[in-house]
Amino acid sequence: MRLIDRNMTVFLGGLFILTVAIPLMQGNILPGYAIQLAGKYLCYALLAVALDLVWGYAGILSLGHGAFFALGAYVMGMHLMREIGTRGVYANPELPDFMVFLNWDSLPWYWLASGSFAATLALILLVPGCLAFVFGWFAFRARVSGVYLSIITQAMTYALMLAFFRNEMGFGGNNGLTDFKDLLGVSLSSPEMRLVLFIASALALAGGLLLARAITASHLGRVLVAIRDAESRTRFLGYRVEHYKLFVWTVSAMMAGVAGALYVPQVGIVNPGEFAPANSIEVVIWVALGGRGTLAGAALGAIMVALTRTLLTGWLPDAWLYALGALFILVTLYLPKGIVGALGDLRPARKQSKEVPA
Amino acid sequence: MTILNIDSVSKSFDGFRAINDLNLAIDKGELRAIIGPNGAGKTTMMDLITGRIRPDRGTLFFDTTHDLTRLDEAGTARLGIGRKFQKPTVIESLTVAENIDLALAGPRDVWSALRGPHGKSAVKERARLLDLVRLPDPDLLAGALSHGQKQWLEIAMLLAQKPRLLLVDEPAAGMTDAETMRTAELLRSLAGEHSIVVVEHDMDFVRALDCRVTVLHQGHVLAEGPLDHVSRNPEVIDVYLGR
To answer: What is one Pfam family matched by this protein (chain B) (predicted)?
Structure first.
């Protein structure tokens, strides 16, 4: 199977054109906040690709992928908090404002690495990756699958949300982390930094897509599809199903973490609401809309829903949630394979439509 | 020399004795048919052999040295036990060739899988197997095959694993008479090179296999021998054939 298939070519081509065009059009054709908004969409798209990798190919319907996204976001947020330094309200050179407010006199141990940008980059992958590995190790070995797995992923993100709401956790409680000033010494509100973050998001999305494609187009991708369609059969062929699930689950969580980390500097805040179960469920809608098991379709679905939300919440703020619900029902009823899947069916004369002699 | 030794094995589910002091030995290269009424414990026996479930009592040994009660499904498969389910289970959204590739003997770990498919020898082996089961188009989606063709694809996948012992659960179910006879012929030709255990209900099919027959009843061996011999056994007639 080719690494860059037709869908991938079209999507990556479109992504490249937009990455060049949006900065050029900003300020004249598009409003001044277009880059920031587009960068946010690209992070959502990467999260959707991460979910599609496990749901579309290995059949693991995660209703908690928002948790990995949020963990990546918090890791980045912690670094951005440390960069505020003495510019905070309390002007404490070491402690973020909320810790001073809580009368803490030193950084908790888990904040120590956040001062280093290199360590932050590593932790963006490691924190979601480790949680996914431990969670997956127990869940997949115990052969929890299907709706039961979906429920415990949902419980996982809900439990994390409750934990992060607590002030004693040391992550800013329900206010979360905000008031960021700069990244690597460059102001987050400067046009240059915004452009860099936008391009980084585009590159991360392209990289994530190619990585997911490399995995799914390999022999391992065949094994994943076999697990999705006939798990028991795959075991009897000699494959340790739990190892394969654990691998793809952990990779997917890391990808979601990168998406979250790029998201935070572009929106300027991360709070426990990112762990809300509804967020994770919305990701499922993006993937279903774009086309489960199509990767580029998942990214497209995320961008389309996000764009629609931006437009609708501007025009008809009350209608947005109804529109999202209606969208999900309509897609389930009329586009079970999603947009990209339906487009694929329109292409003429594919192998499966060939008449088979009995 | 035996390939499989089942010794005094019992297995209960919630007090129901699915397997009750079962003793069974399969010789290397032997073709063996196992018959018995519904609930006789045939599927439970297969689950025990392939490590899907563990016995309450007794021992299962493969090739006299490998303790099957310590292995899971993947472990017994890697050891050389291939299992065909009653309902044909092929990967419907993959092509015939991809199905065979998944089954071809070789490393099964994640890293090898990531590095890619098998080499040139695999392509030849795949062609040989597809020829053997008469599936001409390797690029067809497995989901588009007829029921009988799916059964054969699954048999080809089984052979691709190069198993030493094949467990075949009701291969003739849902097949036409002609397909049934071809399947019996195929299994007979495979015996010798592989040891084969066939669970079957269809008496014509069992007759066509022309092999030793074991009759299971309530998780226990009721009779064993050539088909003509066991079918004259009054107990067998009583519980199974006479109905």
So the answer is: BCA_ABC_TP_C
Residues in chain A, pLDDT under 50: 349-358
**B88-131 tens-digit pLDDT:** 889 999 999 999 999 988 888 898 888 866 677 788 888 999 98
Global pTM reads 0.91
> What distance in Å separates the CA atoms of residue A284 and residue A154, rounded to the nearest whole number?
12
Torsion sign over Cα B91, B95, B99, B101: negative
Q: What's the rounded Cα separation, in Å, for the pair A310 and A315? A: 9
Q: Has residue A356 been placed in a domain?
A: no
**Can you give the residue range of the structural domain that contains B134?**
91-162
SS3 of residue A203 by DSSP: helix
Q: Compute CA A241 distance to the chain's CA centroid, rounded to the nearest angstrom.
A: 24
Does residue B150 sit in the same domain as residue B170? no
Set of chain B residues whose Cβ sits within 8 Å of the Cβ of A358: 146
CA A76 to centroid of chain Cα atoms: 14
Largest CA distance in chain B: 59
Q: How far is CA B152 from CA A234, A353, B96, in A?
A: 17, 21, 11
Within a domain: residue B42?
yes
- Rounded to two decimals, the ipTM of the complex is 0.89
Residue B85 domain-assigned? no
Kindly identify which residue of chain A lies nearest to residue B142, measuring between CA atoms: A352
DSSP string, A65-92: HHHHHHHHHHHHHHHHHHHHGGGSTT--
Mind listing the pLDDT tens digit for each residue in B25-34?
Answer: 999 999 999 9
Show the domain range for A95: 6-346
Our count of domains for chain A comes to 1
By DSSP bridging, strand B57-62 and strand B66-67 are antiparallel
Same domain, B1 and B72: yes
User: Do the chains contact at A352 and B72, CB–CB below 8 Å?
Assistant: no
Interface contact B82-A236, CB threshold 8 A: yes
Same domain, B2 and B60: yes
Distances (CA, A) of A323 to A298, A308, A318, A329: 19, 9, 10, 10
- Count of structural domains within chain B: 2
Residues in chain B: 243
The rounded distance, in Å, linking the Cα atoms of A308 and A306 is 5
Residues of A whose CB is below 8 A from B82: 236
Q: Select from B90, B110, B115 the Cβ nearest to the Cβ of A244.
A: B110
Of A219, A233, A356, the CB nearest to B89: A233
- Output b/e per residue, A190-208; b: 16+ Cβ within 10 A: eeebbebbbbbbbebbbeb
pLDDT 10s digits, A68-117: 999 999 999 999 999 998 888 888 888 999 999 999 989 999 999 999 99
**pLDDT higher than threshold 90 for residue B132:** no
Specify the pLDDT at position B242.
57
Buried b (16+ CB within 10 A) or exposed e, B51-66: bbbebeebebbbbeee
Question: Looking at the structure, do residues B134 and B30 belong to the same domain, yes or no?
Answer: no
Cβ neighbours of B157 in A, within 8 Å: 237
Amino acid B118: pLDDT: 64
Same domain, B44 and B136: no
DSSP secondary structure letter of residue A351:
G
Q: Are strands B165-169 and B81-84 parallel, antiparallel or unpaired?
A: parallel
